[in-house]
Amino acid sequence: MALHTRDGGLVMPNAWDGLSALMLADAGFEAIAISSAALAATLGRSDGRHEVTLGEHLEHARLFDQLTSLPVNGDFEDGYGDTPENVAATVEAAVASGLAGIGIEDTSGNPYQPIRGFDDAVNRMRSAVSAARGRILATNEGKERLAANRANDSRTTARRS
Question: Rounded distance, CA 39 to CA 24, Å?
C-alpha cells in the first residue's frame, strides 16, 4: 500500500510477457500490472469472454512475480463468476498467488449484455473488498461503464462517482 499512498503517485505499466516484465523492472518501475487483453492476445484469444482461465491468469501473475520480485497487479476481467461469492473466491485465489492488487471489471463475459447492472457491479466489488481484508488492493475497472455512459446517459456515471 505504501506505493499507492506516497507523494508523487505510482506509475505502474502493463507487461504482457516475461520479457516485457523484466524490461520494465530493469527500467526502474516499482510495480507492474497485468493486462487481461495483453495476456489474451499473447495466447491468440479474445479478452473479456473468459477465453483465458482464472488458472492461466494466476500462473501468468506468478511468473511476473518470480521473474521480477516486484508487486504485481492483476486485471482479472469480471472476477470470474456470476455471483459476488465467485468474485470473493477469485480475490482469495489472487491473495494465495501473491498478487499485490486485483482489478475487477463491470463486464459480464456475455456479448449480448456486456456491462453488468449498477447494483450488481457494486455488490461484486463489496464482496471483493471484503475478501481482500487489507491483504490485497481490490479496485474496480469501470472503464467499460464509462464508455457506455458516454454514448447513453451520463447520470449513471455521476451516480457511480
Answer: 16
